[in-house]
From TrEMBL:
Gene3D superfamilies: Metal-dependent hydrolases, Urease, subunit C, domain 1. Belongs to the metallo-dependent hydrolases superfamily. Hydantoinase/dihydropyrimidinase family. One of its GO terms (molecular function) is hydrolase activity, acting on carbon-nitrogen (but not peptide) bonds, in cyclic amides. PANTHER family: COLLAPSIN RESPONSE MEDIATOR PROTEIN, HYDRANTOINASE/DIHYDROPYRIMIDINASE FAMILY MEMBER. The modification N6-carboxylysine is found at residue 150. This is Dihydropyrimidinase. Residues 49-437 form the Amidohydrolase-related domain. It comes from the Bacteria. It comes from Paenibacillus typhae. One of its GO terms (cellular component) is cytosol.
């Protein structure tokens, strides 16, 4: 049945206006004033913003890490995402050395099929780049529509790849039209610092942060940017936390390189002192790269506003405090890295960003949705409200005041990283391809209703013209 969303304020990355949105067969088929279609269901959005659904470009659902598996899988994780206003997630498909790429992708299809309640896609981790992998890549990109490749520069002896692999991945991505993503930290030096800390008896969670200093994130970011320049390729730096890394991305963009960056809600609102909480509670805040000194938050907000960073990913990677984070009692290096963020990403960015005057309403939409659609080959099917786009829509009440808490969240994890945060604004209803997933704050979706998205290849013109940013004189 057709639906018309009426009386709301439609907000895209470019415009803010009052109008009705007509939805037929899952697609936006009309936008205008006083739309009427016989028999259409009327959805009243009075007093609300009508946003394109959030796109979360960075999740780890049902992912093995550090001898355990994330608490949220594709069902609980995407339900929580939907409650939070996100209608598309792009998850990281892990690979191991020697494993055929298709078998790794099939594993991720098995984890997600029949479970996801919103649309989803995969990035592919590159753990080695030999002739076999080079031979398999074109087919994965073409047939699976996986047009982004992830290289870890950290996590020595598990996920970390060397610079040769990164260089060859950048070359292959240039050839195939893919975007290379990096976890940018110098894993070799971190490994040494961790050994030294443990040998000195420094085992508490705070040493996780102290053994991963910002210089090692800045160094790896700069290294990756130089290799991108050398290969004339394209790079997306995930979970940027600090000034040192922002400066390297800004420098690369000033040169006109196709280098992009993402930060995450935790780095915008939490700081390193959280790791010092007593009774091992600091373990709840162990991410890699780690939370930083508070002043970095202003640098990250500025970078989002001026375009040095383009997106916000949740880096959802949840582990229970009891039984999972616990694995690192007495040895911080055994604390599973990551936290629960998928549900609060959208509202935190709105509340801390728009409400506090750090970013505009349109910039919010750009960061939370549109930029990810452009970078990851989903635009304009996703990431905007336009005729012909999927009707992925969030009806958002900006007046609601609420407190984030594990007692009320929908993630399958026993704590909330933002416990006690008082925020303004809440998604009231969320539609995925025209069907309600959340209606009046209640889940009404279905496991398995989410569709796998084959994505287009990376296109510089569709992504961000670095020149515009330079002429704006922003970095
Ligand atoms: N970020 C984090 O601590 N955990 C998830 C894995 C990763 O993104 O590095
Ligand atoms: Zn990472
Ligand atoms: Zn991650």
């Amino acid at each position: 049945m057709a639906k018309i969303i009426k009386n709301g304020t439609i907000v895209t990355a470019a415009d803010t206006y009052t109008g009705d949105v007509l939805i037929e067969n899952g697609i936006v088929t009309g936008i205008g004033l006083n739309l009427e279609v016989p028999g259409a269901e009327i959805v009243d959005a009075s007093g609300c913003y009508v946003f394109p659904g959030g796109i979360d470009p960075h999740t780890h659902l049902d992912m093995p890490f550090g001898g355990t598996v994330t608490a949220d899988d594709f069902e609980s994780g995407t339900i929580a995402a939907a409650y939070g206003g996100t209608t598309t997630v792009i998850d990281f498909c892990l690979t191991t050395k020697g494993q055929p790429l298709q078998s790794a992708v099939d594993t991720w299809h098995n984890k997600s099929q029949g479970k996801a309640v919103i649309d989803y896609s995969f990035h592919l981790m590159v753990s080695e780049l030999n002739d076999r992998v080079l031979g398999e890549l074109p087919q994965i990109i073409e047939q699976e529509g996986i047009t982004s490749l992830k290289v870890f520069m950290a996590y020595k002896n598990t996920f970390q790849a060397d610079d040769g692999v990164l260089y060859k991945t950048l070359q292959a991505a240039k050839r195939e039209g893919a975007l290379v993503m990096v976890h940018a930290e110098n894993g070799d030096v971190i490994e040494y610092l961790v050994e030294q800390a443990l040998a000195a008896g420094n085992t508490d969670p705070i040493y996780h942060a102290l053994t991963r200093p910002p210089e090692l994130e800045g160094e790896a970011t700069g290294r990756a940017a130089y290799l991108t320049e050398l290969t004339d390729s394209q790079l997306y730096v995930v979970h940027v936390t600090c000034a040192e890394a922002v400066w390297k991305i800004a420098e690369a963009r000033k040169k006109g390189l196709r280098v992009y960056g993402e930060t995450c809600p935790q780095y915008l609102v939490l700081d390193q002192t959280a790791l010092e909480k007593p009774d091992f509670e600091g373990a709840k805040y162990v991410w890699s790269p780690p939370l930083r000194e508070q002043w970095n938050q202003d640098v990250l907000w500025d970078a989002l506003w001026n375009g040095s960073l383009q997106t916000i990913g949740s880096d959802q990677c949840s582990f229970d405090f009891k039984g999972q984070k616990d694995l690192g009692r007495g040895d911080f290096s055994k604390i599973p890295n990551g936290g629960p963020t998928i549900e609060d990403r959208f509202s935190l960015l709105y509340s801390e960003g728009v409400q506090k005057g750090r970013i505009s309403l349109n910039k919010f939409v750009d960061i939370i949705s549109t930029s990810s659609a452009r970078l990851f080959g989903l635009f304009p099917q996703k990431g905007t409200i336009a005729i012909g786009s999927d009707a992925d829509i969030v009806i958002f009440d900006p007046s609601v005041e609420r407190t984030l808490s594990a007692a009320t969240h929908h993630m399958n994890v026993d704590y909330n990283a933002f416990e006690g945060f008082e925020i303004k604004g809440e998604p009231v209803s969320v539609l995925s391809r025209g069907e309600f997933v959340i209606r009046d704050k209640q889940f009404v979706g279905q496991a398995g209703a989410g569709q796998y998205l084959r994505r287009k290849r990376f296109e510089a013109e569709t992504a961000f013209p670095a020149k515009a940013e330079i002429s704006g004189g922003v970095v």
